[in-house]
User: Fold this.
Amino acid sequence: MYYIITDELLQQSFEKDKNVILKAAQEVHFDELANLIIKKTIEKYGALFNPLGLVDDTFQKIIDYNYHNTTEIKGIYDNLCVTYRYKNCDNQLEIIWDGTSQEEKYATEWTETLLSWIDDLTYNPSFVKAILQLTVFNDGSRNLTFVRNAIKAIINDHFEIKILTRKGVKKVVVYQKKLKKAS
Assistant:
C-alpha cells in the first residue's frame, strides 16, 4: 500500500516525522474504516433498539444499506484522527524489529484504537442514531449540520477535549473540570 505525503504535510514537518506518517496512514485507510464505523453502528443499533431482531421498514432499510455514503462521516473521522494524534503525541519513530514498516505499524495501531473507540461510542444511543442519520437515512435533501455537531459534541465529551477548526487547522483544547464551591 502506498502512503501519499502531501505538500501540506511536508510544510508542517519533515517526511519521516511520526505524525506525518500517521496522518498519511489515517487518510489512506479512510474508506475501509468508515465502512467499519457504519457496520459497527448498524450492529449496535440492532442490539440497542431491536434486540428481538424484528424486521420493520426502518430496520429493513438499515439492513439493506450498501455503504455508499461515507463522505458524510469524513469530518467525524478526521476529529477521531486528531484525537488519536493528540493522545499519542510523542513524535519519535520507533525501531521495529519484526520487519514491518512504520506505516504498517501506525496503521494497525490506529485501526485497533479506532475500532475500540467506536465500540465505546456506540453505547451512546444518540451517537448511533446520528451516524445512521448521516449515512443510512441521508436522502441528500436535509441539512445535517446539527447532526454532525451533535456527534462532535458526543466525541468531545467522551474524550474530555474540544477540537476547534480555524482556517483549516485543527486545534485540541482540553476541558477543565469546573469545581463547585462548597456552601
